[in-house]
Amino acid sequence: xxxxxxxxxxxxxxxxxxxxxxxxxxxxxxxxxxxxxxxxxxxxxxxxxxxxxxxxxxxxxxxxxxxxxxxxxxxxxxxxxxxxxxxxxxxxxxxxxxxxxxxxxxxxxxxxxxxxxxxxxxxxxxxxxxxxxxxxxxxxxxxxxxxxxxxxxxxxxxxxxxxxxxxxxxxxxxxxxxxxxxxxxxxxxxxxxxxxxxxxxxxxxxxxxxxxxxxxxxxxxxxxxxxxxxxxxxxxxxxxxxxxxxxxxxxxxxxxxxxxxxxxxxxxxxxxxxxxxxxxxxxxxxxxxxxxxxxxxxxxxxxxxxxxxxxxxxxxxxxxxxxxxxxxxxxxxxxxxxxxxxxxxxxxxxxxxxxxxxxxxxxxxxxxxxxxxxxxxxxxxxxxxxxxxxxxxxxxxxxxxxxxxxxxxxxxxxxxxxxxxxxxxxxxxxxxxxxxxxxxxxxxxxxxxxxxxxxxxxxxxxxxxxxxxxxxxxxxxxxxxxxxxxxxxxxxxxxxxxxxxxxxxxxxxxxxxxxxxxxxxxxxxxxxxxxxxxxxxxxxxxxxxxxxxxxxxxxxxxxxxxxx
Length: 564
Hints:
The chain contains 21 helices and ten strands. The strands form two sheets. Strands 1-10-9-6-7 form a five-stranded antiparallel sheet. A five-stranded antiparallel sheet has the order 2-3-4-5-8, with helices on one face.
């Protein structure tokens, strides 16, 4: 690549230093014949890297088929290339501290980078490339801009102009500000860090194209990076209409994609960024949807071509259509909410000694609880939390609730019941969804409880003023493995209470902004121990989230009271 201005070219000594352990692992992954045990040993030397690798490997966005609990297992299942890519992503993320550039919010840069990364990952299938390789290329490709700001912090004030420009215009601005461009710096950085050539080329040649002798796969990766750059700009640049048109043209030229397919991929970008950010340990703000982007682009076009009166008329038409769609969607969601409520225990046939409460973060919930009699003195009960939120989680919740009530009428052993439900869910689960669940039977005459857990949070056994015991999960969630075994715990309530809950309670924010978490939960349960059983769930949740019911996640609480 030609240097923009030779006398201002960035020197390797100007570049930030990579995390040594992570780069050592990246370089080891690229060596022919490297042993997975040696790689596992390298990762295990750094506890922070170990924790990050296991967290990302088990995340919903990068999750594997089965849960990974050890470094050696992660290295074996991931393979050298995927491990290399994960380590590269972490290296880039950690190369510059959050305060490395005075006055600059580095999180806004990584939010843009994540848009490029998820865009590139979506294009992998069209390009016949590895999705995680494309994700890594997308995340790394504009890192040179962050380095330019690091070297020239006095130019941070121009960030908004850089971010609001299209990819081509942004390079012109970079030349004016820095006398260099991010792709030049990216290639220098890649060579300095001894990164793999395909990723180095994606960083250095996603604007002008790679040298003629470049192999076809690396050339295709550069094209993916080019398209991902424009797809991300749709959500950030000022002239979104131009960006959308350019995306459609590029995807048609390089992948024979129709405008409808291009718009579908752009829609998926906004829906994937938050999930990818959670997996990568990054913070992002609320994402603008593609429909909002289209409206913004169309309004700009209308302002340029229509008279004020005609624009007003068309806007009224659009708003009316939006309201009709919104009303129809609200009706559908209300029907779904009513169906979900019908799956919860009927307040009119309430049983003594047991109560529960479910609060939804959205219109429909992925949590549920249930209980019913299975004999003169015995009750079966359960509480569960489906992974994810929204309609997908609600549908899986409905299926799991139905299986519990249907199969539980004939199977009174909680462990065996969970095993049968697990097999049913495993056979039909999609997109790696799973269910954490507690199921049990309580003898109200003797106070004996038989309890089994499928990857759920520990059940809490409280006395009148103190914690008696906690019963953590000894088996994975439902839907992970068809052959899982779910051991039973048997204990006496001893006149105390058993509390079952979902993570929406632990993660609820208190008035000071902190989360409740485990110690806070025990404190709240002690404070409300004297309240009547039927009133206690609402009193506990009100003390945690307040009466406005502003929730980040579904919240469900069940209480089983022992005989005095």
